[in-house]
Predict the 3D structure of the following.
Amino acid sequence: MIELRQVSKRFGHQLAVDAIDLTCPKGQTQVLIGTSGCGKSTLLRMMVGLVTPDSGSVLFEGEPLDELTLDSVRQRIGYMIQEGGLFPHLTVRENIAIVPRYLRWQPSESDVRIKELLELTQLPIALLDRYPRQLSGGQRQRVSLMRALMLDPDVMLLDEPLGDLDPMIRAELQQDLRIIFRELGKTVVLVTHDLAEAGFLADRVTLLSHGKIVQQGDFSELIANPVDEFAAKFVQAQRPVFA
Ligand SMILES: Nc1ncnc2c1ncn2[C@@H]1O[C@H](COP(=O)(O)OP(=O)(O)O)[C@@H](O)[C@H]1O
Ligand SMILES: [Mg+2]
């Protein structure tokens, strides 16, 4: 569904992404994992055309992402940025309906879709008229998820969607995400720095370090056979405390 071929991106002296090849197959969840600053967010931004690679290509269903294809491709991608990105001065309903309004949907059409998504994300309807600051962290993430799902996109790009949540809420949302992705058959690229989360959600895992792929494939393979010292350390550092 999405393919990166030898993409590189430099910011000043910083090589953020270094000749990466990555395939995100249709209907599967690809998890990007790695320490802070290794290039995960930059990779997602390339997939949605917010960052243009210095070299290499980004393909969406085999077609290169360029000025001609970008608009239509964007409407097929739900993108949830790090920190959720809700507008503080807009209500939940207004936040969720931003893109539909831009696309000139009838308000009634929007309302039907919002109702469906409230059910899917298990949010009470009473929250629609609140502002983001009047929600809990978990609720805010669910609203961001709703917004990303609004156009029923084929692809979901999620940048640390469960970043700052406490462990119980996080576990709950992980469960729900897995159910939602499987039920809807979405192609998902999810960024995390949490190994357990990767294991729970991923069909394929890509471990990154300093803009390069260290290891790619099955989660169980990463745990059992880390390819180098960095991979081994990364796995070791996140062993459950009670193991
Ligand atoms: N817009 C930008 N301008 C300058 N440097 C950037 C920019 N975006 C990312 N970087 C740098 O590129 C590297 C990778 O960043 P990022 O993709 O955000 O990493 P991650 O999401 O894995 O934490 C970091 O060193 C970061 O400081
Ligand atoms: Mg990031």
Observations:
- The chain has two domains: 1-76+155-243, 87-152.
